[in-house]
Amino acid sequence: MTVKEIFETMDYGPAPESAVEALAWLVDQGDRFGHFIDGSFTTPADGFESRNPANGEVLATLSQATQADVDSAVAAARTAQPKWESLGGPGRAKFLYAIARLLQKHSRLAAVLETLDNGKPIREARDIDIPLAQRHFYYHAGMAQLMDSELPDAEALGVCGQIIPWNFPLLMLAWKIAPAIAMGNTVVLKPAEYTSLTAMLFADICQQAGLPAGVVNIVTGDGAVGEMITAAEVDKIAFTGSTSVGRRIREATAGSGKSLTLELGGKSPYIVFDDADIDSAVEGLVDAIWFNQGQVCCAGSRLLVQEGIAEAFHTKLRARMDKLRIGNPMDKCIDVGAIVDRVQLNAITELVTANTAGEMYQTKIDMPVGGCFYPPTLIEGLTTSDTLMQEEIFGPVLVSTTFRTPGEAVEIANNTRYGLAATLWSENVNLALDIAPKLVAGVVWINGTNMFDAAAGFGGVRESGFGREGGWEGLSAYTKPKTKTKPLELVKPFKGGGATADPLDRTAKMYIGGKQARPDSGYSQAIYGKSGTLLGHVGIANRKDVRNAVEAAAGAKGWSKTTGHLRAQILYYIGENLSARADEFAHRINIMAGKRTGATEVEAAIQRLFSAAAWADKYDGQVHNVPIRGVAMAMKEPVGIIGALCPDESPLLGLVSVMAPAIAMGNRVILSASHPYPLAATDFYQILDTSDVPAGVVNILTGNHTEVAKPLAAHLNVDAVWSFSSSNLSATIEAASAGNLKRTWVNHGLAIDWSQDHTKRFLQAATEVKNIWVPYGE
Ligand code: NAI
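Above: inputs. Below: predicted complex with NAI.
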């Protein structure tokens, strides 16, 4: 093309990036890779090829890890961990800084390797993936530096198994490894089988940084290797990938005591109001759904446009689609590169071909031949029940619908099993900030999209998984409290045989929706004191009572919208009312549990209520400084409906310790009272009734924890389940929670000292952080 022709057409000329250095690096490594275990590369073994999806060329051969490889990686990590942790935060920070600097030094090599292996445009690898990966190590070097002073009660979990996907290979590696090693853990990481090359480069960088052997171990292979890591003797599994595999990992780790975070799929709404800056919103869509060929868990894949502007908006969008440049990802002028692998290309093609709803538009541009390319696609006029409005396509395919009112936009946006991210465009700050809190998503972007930073937590709700990556909140996924734990003995009810304390029939009912309710089972259980005296009866809850309690809790959703100030007053009121009847409760605890510590327990319960009341209006969010024109507001939201099996051994204090922080944060609770000593809980209804607690906010069931654990954990309207029961039901609960991937906190048969105030831990478990990115400053 001559200069004259270029001026005439104003067309882009090709601007190819050179692959020479990256290909030479691969040759230097022998084009065959072993695993990176205990600080060195193992001899390459049988495995699989990694191909360039843009042209099908083989780039290198990777080894498929065996059980022995995984075992030796875990053993190396285990051996290295205590010494790595004992280096202290500043000691570890030095290595993270060194890694960050080396990632900068080798940034072009990393970017080119990523593009060759993954098919993403070099512009994105160079300007987004690699800089963000560097930033993650810098940021977490700082976190390591600050750990001793800012997180004095936290310590490392131990060895972390980490399994990552192929869409942002080096960036996902950084998201996993940086916080883990900053907090003193060691890791065994498995990259996705399509894209292992930058992980190998990272292993090389670890060597160059002089990272102690065994701190980072990388094994390559397919899902079978992921399963081996999941089953290995590790203390945590951190997974990013599909919801179906995430669910399997939840089931496989149930009851194992392994900590778990899951960052899964999404079908994120992209909402455009009629007062939006339309050109910006159209350009935003390029970043929302055509960034990385739409292979982004938080891609704005569901367009919701306000009806009045829908036609004009779609017209502009189609025109913009026709200008997208698709082709060789190594060309710096390319907007849309190759799909990661033919398997994914086929999956996208099948999903789109099977769709008969709506109207499809594909870009009118010449498609590159060979390679795994899929044209940017728009499917208009879908309704929420259409498959493509619900299923993650994970490709450059945008589906769209329209809405009339802001309320309808929120309804459609939330009509999904996912809850990862949401984008909204409006020039009206009131409207934008009114809608943001109503969207069920872990991240909300206002007038921007797909923005990420190490300082702002990322992660979802619902079936998009749990746990956050980045920010202060991301660190808790890699630490545990320093407290020593000991086993929790099963607390058995006393047996009968003695005198009856009171000849009148005193069968306490359950407490559901602010009313006393008879158990559905029609069965009750006798409660005896230590000497065998019959103290009364309580109902035995079954799954139907659980369902009724969940319904009552769902009906009390207004509680989540009340102010912390109001909730604090109600908690103080409960405390005051309990205080007025302290002697009665203390006596009840003493005779029921055969203790002499009733008075101390009641006093501590009152203090716990006051602590939660104090925090109700102070457990605030944060505003994160992110390096763009904006800030990320990390808002703490209630988790929703929490089901909890209360401690058996501490009948009143345990129940209050669980309930108070949960309701202080705006959650509604279903509490299964102490099984052997339930009468303090049944007396407690009267306190709740006289303290202005709205009906349905606190629901109390009695009976055996074993009966209610599974129905609670399997219920799709319950958002979190906690268990502090002395019947170790951790495995049952974690396995049953996989259905809707609800958050769990279970004791794994370990005791918690309820005389200590754990309110802060409870506040954290009772809230979910939503990061709302808003334009701010210049
Ligand atoms: P995947 O979830 O199967 O793979 C992600 C990682 O998990 C890979 O490293 C894989 O080897 C590993 N893995 C697979 N099976 C495993 C098992 N049973 N136990 C432990 N680890 C296992 O995702 P895949 O098949 O590559 O993509 C399928 C779909 O998943 C995509 O079309 C997309 O919808 C979704 N996906 C979502 C991602 C996200 O970031 N949320 C990333 C990648 C895929």
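The CA atoms of residues 120 and 292 lie 6 Å apart.
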